[in-house]
Amino acid sequence: MSSLQHFQNVSEYLRTQIIGQPALVEQMLVALLADGHMLVEGAPGLAKTRAIKALSNCISGSFQRIQFTPDLLPADITGSDIFRPETQSFDFQPGPIFHSLILADEINRAPAKVQSALLEAMAERQVTVGNKTYPLPGVFLVMATQNPIEQEGTYPLPEAQLDRFLLHVIVDYPNVESEQQILQLTRDEARRQLQTAPASASVLQPEPAAPERTVANGDAEVQLSHEDIFTARMAVLDVFMNENVEHYIVRIIQATRDPGLYDKTIASWLDYGASPRATIAIDRCARAAAWLAGNDYVSPDDVRKVAHDVLRHRIIPSFRAEAEGMSRDAILARLLDVVPVP
């Protein structure tokens, strides 16, 4: 097999794992081939983490995620010398930077010294601690992410540091068709995880097992085992959802992003809408609500029942909405009224 064919196979695999982001898939492979790093900017929930993890599955190298926070220190990235009392000497403890694929999540949340430590490693392909220099892996790709929505508590990257990145990729929301494919993909993954979860739960026992006990409500036993929960979760995933109801969920999420298609007043009340995580959440919660009600199918009423609680913390009202006293629930109620119910 030629090298080109090999990379084409990888590209096809990544497109099955990262739905609706073909440009991100292509640019990851471009960065890998061009031996550079990339800065990815996009709202939360757009598969940025999933993308680099999927790429790591195709590379014989290790993957590490670094969550950047304001209290992070340079040594938390590069590693540091650790004193060993038994040998009366210092040993170098490598940090998370010593991996082939690095996800620097929300890089602009860390202060300048931490950003510089990462960017120096990117440019020099080495880390210096004390008077020693340690080389980084030959295959070394950093994908740093930035959230364009939240600016409070962030430290913007200076232009000179931005220039260290080979690519600056903007990731946008997927279209309607892609979002429905995302639903199917996540449901299939959830089923696979549930099929393996009971076995792993029985093997790992971090704490001593609690003594057996039975809690009853009258004559009905109400004690749930892990197996009971996993079985119920699988049943929830198997609750039937008509394609029209699935379309309805996607249209609700799309309406939070582009409300002007339905109501120009709502458009003036919303700055940012919900991510594909919200689509997945409504799907799972509506199925659970239908199952709990004893139904074997999901109705639009099940979707509307969970929509407020799923979306309330995922939309960002505009200044005009706040000035007019429009709460998030009021905005969502208006939005649900204007999206056609199947």
Structural class: alpha/beta
Number of strands: 13
Ends apart, CA distance between termini: 50 Å
In CATH, the architecture of the largest domain is 3-Layer(aba) Sandwich
Biggest beta sheet summary: 5 strands, parallel
Overall geometry comes to: globular
The CATH top-level class label of the largest domain: Alpha Beta
Description:
It is a single chain. By secondary structure, this protein is of the alpha/beta class. It folds into 2 domains: 3-170, Rossmann fold (3-Layer(aba) Sandwich); 176-198 and 226-338, Orthogonal Bundle (Helicase, Ruva Protein, domain 3), CATH 1.10.8. The chain is 48% helix and 15% strand. It has 14 helices and 13 strands. It has helices at 3-17, 22-33, 48-56, 75-78, 112-124, 159-162, 176-203, 226-237, 243-257, 264-269, 276-292, 300-311, 319-323, 328-338, and strands at 38-41, 63-67, 79-84, 89-94, 101-105, 126-129, 132-135, 141-146, 167-170, 216-217, 220-221, 270-272, 316-317. The strands form 5 sheets. Strands 2-5-8-1-9 form a 5-stranded parallel beta sheet, covered by helices on one side. A two-stranded antiparallel ribbon has the order 3-4. Strands 6-7 form a two-stranded antiparallel ribbon. Helix 7 (176-203) runs antiparallel to helix 8, helix 8 packs across helix 11 (276-292) and helix 9 crosses helix 11 (276-292). The chain starts with a helix and ends with a helix.
